[in-house]
Amino acid sequence: MKSLFTYNRRVRIIQYALFGVFIFHFTAVLHAEDLLILSMRYFPALTTQHLLAHPQSIGSLTTLVILPILIVTNEYWQWIARIGDTLRQFAVIFLSFFLIGITVPSDELKTLEHQTARLLSIGLRDKAFEVGRNYPFTTANLQSLRIQALATNDSLGNFLFSKPQHYYSIRQRRASLQQLSTPVSQGGLNYSSKTTHIHPEPRHISALLDGNLPLFAKTLPSHFTQQLKVSQIPLYYRQALLLYMRLNTHPILNYADDATEANYRDFLEQQRKLRLQYPPAAQETYSIAEKNKMGFFYGNTYWYYFFYEIPHQ
Description:
Elements: H1 9-30, H2 32-42, H3 44-51, H4 56-77, H5 86-103, H6 108-121, H7 125-130, H8 140-150, H9 153-159, H10 170-181, H11 203-210, H12 213-219, H13 223-226, H14 235-247, H15 258-277, H16 288-298, H17 302-308
Helix pairs in contact: 1-4, 1-5, 2-3, 6-8, 8-10, 11-12, 12-14, 15-16
C-alpha cells in the first residue's frame, strides 16, 4: 500500500479533510437526532449516559469510523484517482456531497421535536423552550413539549405565547401528550427506556389554548387575581383577563389594568387600519395580508392568537 504522503500529498489531504468535514456535519448537525434515536434503540444505557447531553459526539464517533475506511480503501483501490484530473475529482466530490444532502430525507419539524424532547429529558428546560425560537412553524407535539418545559404557572403565563402558536384541538393536544409518554424507540418522544406519565395541561391553560375565556376566568388559580398586584400577574394572563372583561357582559370577576388596556387599544387600532387597507373577501373575517401584518406587530400576544389562530364561528 502506498503511503498517504507520497502522491499529490496536499491534494489528497484536502480531499480527506473535505470528507471528514462532510461526515461530521452530516451526522452531528443534520442527522444527529435521528442517529441518537437509532442508538437509543440498540444501546439505550450508553446513549442515555453519554450521548444525550452531547449529540455532537455521535458525529465524532461516526467520522472516526467512516473516514479511516474511506482513506484505506482509496489507498488500496485508488478510486478517487480513477475519476480523472484534480479538478474533476473535486467536482465529483462536491457533487456527491450535494446529492447525498438532498436525497437523504430530513424533517425539520421532527428534528425540532426530538431536540426539544431530548433537552427536556436531561433537565435543560430553558434550552428546550428556546429550540426553534425563530422557526415560523410549529406542531402540536412542539407546543406540548414547550408547555412541559415551562413547567410552572408563572413561566407559562409569561412565555407561552412569546413564540408563534397555532391552534390545535384538544384531541390533537391529547394525542401529542401520548407521544410525549411513548419511548423514542417506539416512535414517541420520551427518551426514557419505558413509558412514563406526562402531566396533562392545567385546566386554565387548556382554556386559553381553546379560546374559552369564561372557563379560563373560572379555572385560573385564585391567587393570581386575589393575592398579586396587577403588575405581578403573568403577562398573558393579564391579556386574557382583559379580553375576557371586554367580551363578557356578566364577568365572574373584576379586573382592571390601565397599561394592558392601553396596549389592547393600540392592538385594535392597528387592526382597524389594516382592515381598511386590506379589506377581507365577502366570507372572510380578515385578509391574509392583515393577518401577516398583525403577526409582525403583535404575533407575541395572546390577542393575536385569539383573533387570528383560533377558529371562531
